[in-house]
């Protein structure tokens, strides 16, 4: 018997040609219908969500995770509004990227096309189910969703509502598939579906992403892991440095573009380390430091090599004092995950070297790392933040969900 | 002890920052020095190549493979000329792709950067060693080359000559690495070097590519497999159709953009199948056909399901008679490898549907599939032809060997 995963991926694959033909208007009408349906049927959705919450409470899920899982009228309105914002974004599909004629008279066009079928593998929050469906359908793709088991009842209801809504539109209902099998094996089966899935995008914690990268034979867009640094250079304006570091650490510690390690030039540290860290300590951030940090500041735990290599996603940070820009660059080269890196300096030559030499998706001069985000860059909703160098890097807006195709027109050209 | 593969990849990784700083002039000077050195030391190279040829003859290698392996003065001059052509190509690195300012005043730039370290895994021909080195270095990348064991002596000498040439230039010699361990395990070790290699590009036969796709945890750009079709529609000009089909099959059967299967509309087949296939039979192409083909033409073997799914790379082809454009599209959907597909027709609506609906890197109207090639598209030398949809699709010119990076400039912006 065919497995659920293979069956649903096959249905999605079979719907890909029809999706590829949809006009922008047809896709936008479908997204609007999806948004309307989520609002109209919010009571059903809240009831389904309550099942997930009850199961979570029974299993001892932490209050903060339960909060991320919970849906209510306001949150559903926000999710529906997210779909309407995707309607407003320009449709990249069909865009003519290049057009040229060759000496033999053949005309070549390069145009944007959908990727085909996208596999999304993600964790708890049910809003990702709607976001991913909206972004993939807007770009003419089919999508096979595999969310976390903690949100299964919510996700099942969401996909039921969205598929029902598609029924009144031009879009094929099979373009949207949810894998309900919550066994880990269903993820691993998805990862090997070459020929049915064109790409797999994991979105979640480090373990989820590592499993996908290590086991997928389908092409992967790696997202998310962020060990981000702020380097306070000798010439930094102290107030600006303190403000950027505080924002990068504390404004939302749980996300990938938050800071894990503060690198401080020795000259700044000697005069102002306590001032730089005071707001952190007030916000109950646990500070772990190198020996030099410990000698300048009381009550700082030792930051181990493992600490420098950890994405805390929490109110914990490392501090390391460095002698030079070069030492800061070497530290970032060793521990960074190529996500977002910042230098605070008034020395233009140092800023230029940092922005040139640091190998990361986003490199900042005098700006908090927290801005690595599709909305903040003005791209609108994002399917994730790519930390790999192939295909897409940084916040992935709609064009990251497309491929290209060459169309060649001639009148009998053959190769000599 | 560290393995050869890991050691050399580490050296390449350590050279990446220096490569990233090289100017276009410095890179071009290095490529020119490499070309000069190949010419100046051609006698050494021919002697090394003779070792490979002798070993090949002893092992019973076929004359055609030995011919592909052989180097002589003319071929070396051609290879050196290839490097000089890469010098002439525009350098994509540093190109400003986007620039915008956000309402909070931060300025965002998206620029092209090198990928970093590229792993190339390929088979026999030693010219690939030079091409890959030239393309990767021109784009500011380091490269770890792993060629076939049949060309090991040639490849070792080529890399010795190229690295010696780099010694007189600004480029770090470690940017260029050759894996000499000819055990298959060295390939599989490369495929898992996440953190040292940014991408692996396989170039070779189906088995090599399948091994890379199935075992790599490093991102892969899949190249090469081509089961390409020519569909002769009801309204096709017969002479043009015969000429295109013949060119697509016979001009160079061993390459990926050659035709494996000819699809013929029933109306054309009934009147003109013999005429369409006459040039093929004269060129000693073995024709395998569907039952309808067999009933129209004597002496045609049966084309099995496996035949339709085989890339012959040889003087063999399949013929299938179809009732409609839809049947042709369905056949291509089932057996095509998303490489290059052609329709010969005078019916514009059919051409438009074919070019829209066929999911392939290059789709042709009244042009031979043989044009899917970097030189033919005017891109210059290519590192391969991508048959996947991520990152690059079709002939990969220099921009396919780059990634991007966001540089953000501000004056203390923090996220609210």
From TrEMBL, chains A, B:
Transmembrane segments: none annotated. The keyword Transport does not apply. Residues 4-286 form the Aldehyde dehydrogenase domain. Catalyzes the NADPH-dependent reduction of L-glutamate 5-phosphate into L-glutamate 5-semialdehyde and phosphate. The product spontaneously undergoes cyclization to form 1-pyrroline-5-carboxylate. It holds the Pfam family Aldedh. It catalyses: L-glutamate 5-semialdehyde + phosphate + NADP(+) = L-glutamyl 5-phosphate + NADPH + H(+). Gene3D superfamilies: Aldehyde Dehydrogenase, Chain A, domain 1, Aldehyde Dehydrogenase, Chain A, domain 2. Its EC number is 1.2.1.41. GO terms for cellular component: cytoplasm. It is found in: Cytoplasm. It is an enzyme of class 1 (oxidoreductase). Keywords: Amino-acid biosynthesis, Cytoplasm, NADP, Oxidoreductase, Proline biosynthesis. GO terms for biological process: L-proline biosynthetic process. Signal peptide: none annotated. It comes from the Bacteria. Belongs to the gamma-glutamyl phosphate reductase family. This is Gamma-glutamyl phosphate reductase. Pathway: Amino-acid biosynthesis; L-proline biosynthesis; L-glutamate 5-semialdehyde from L-glutamate: step 2/2. One of its GO terms (molecular function) is glutamate-5-semialdehyde dehydrogenase activity. InterPro entries: Ald_DH/histidinol_DH (IPR016161), Ald_DH_C (IPR016163), Ald_DH_N (IPR016162), Aldehyde_DH_dom (IPR015590), G-glutamylP_reductase_CS (IPR020593), Glu-5-SA_DH (IPR012134), GPR_dom (IPR000965). It comes from Paenibacillus soyae.
């Amino acid at each position: 018997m065919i497995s659920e995963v293979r069956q649903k991926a096959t249905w999605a694959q079979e719907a890909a040609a029809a999706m590829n033909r949809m006009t922008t208007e047809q896709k936008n009408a479908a997204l609007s219908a999806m948004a309307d349906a989520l609002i109209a049927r919010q009571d059903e959705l809240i009831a389904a969500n309550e099942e997930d919450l009850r199961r979570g409470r029974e299993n001892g899920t932490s209050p903060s995770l339960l909060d991320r899982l919970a849906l209510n009228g306001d949150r559903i309105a926000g999710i529906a509004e997210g779909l309407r914002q995707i309607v407003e974004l320009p449709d990249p599909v069909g865009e003519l990227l290049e057009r040229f004629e060759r000496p033999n008279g053949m005309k070549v066009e390069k145009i944007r096309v959908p990727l085909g079928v996208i596999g999304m593998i993600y964790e708890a929050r049910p809003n990702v189910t709607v976001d991913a469906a909206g972004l993939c359908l807007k770009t003419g793709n089919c999508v096979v969703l595999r969310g976390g088991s903690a949100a299964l009842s919510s996700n099942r209801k969401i996909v039921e509502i969205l598929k029902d809504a598609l029924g009144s539109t031009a879009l094929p209902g099979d373009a949207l598939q949810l894998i309900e099998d919550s066994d880990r094996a269903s993820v691993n089966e998805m990862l090997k579906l070459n020929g049915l899935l064109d790409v797999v995008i994991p979105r979640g914690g480090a373990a989820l992403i590592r499993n996908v990268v290590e086991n997928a034979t389908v092409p992967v867009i790696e997202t998310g892991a962020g060990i981000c640094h702020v380097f306070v250079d000798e010439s930094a304006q102290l107030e600006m440095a303190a403000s950027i570091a505080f924002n990068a650490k504390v404004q939302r510690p749980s996300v990938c573009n938050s800071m894990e390690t503060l690198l401080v030039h020795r000259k700044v540290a000697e005069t102002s380390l306590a001032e730089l860290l005071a707001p952190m300590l007030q916000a109950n951030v646990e500070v772990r430091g190198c020996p030099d940090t410990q000698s300048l500041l009381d009550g700082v735990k030792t930051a181990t090599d493992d600490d420098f290599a950890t994405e805390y996603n929490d109110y914990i940070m490392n501090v390391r004092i460095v002698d030079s820009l070069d030492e800061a660059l070497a530290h970032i080269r060793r521990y960074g995950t190529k996500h977002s890196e910042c230098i605070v300096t008034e020395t233009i030559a140092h800023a230029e070297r940092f922005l040139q030499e640091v190998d990361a998706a986003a490199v900042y001069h005098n700006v908090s790392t927290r801005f690595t985000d599709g909305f903040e860059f003005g791209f609108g909703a994002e399917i994730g933040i790519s930390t790999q160098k192939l295909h897409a890097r940084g916040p992935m807006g709609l064009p990251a969900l497309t491929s290209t195709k060459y169309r060649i027109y001639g009148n009998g050209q053959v190769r000599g």
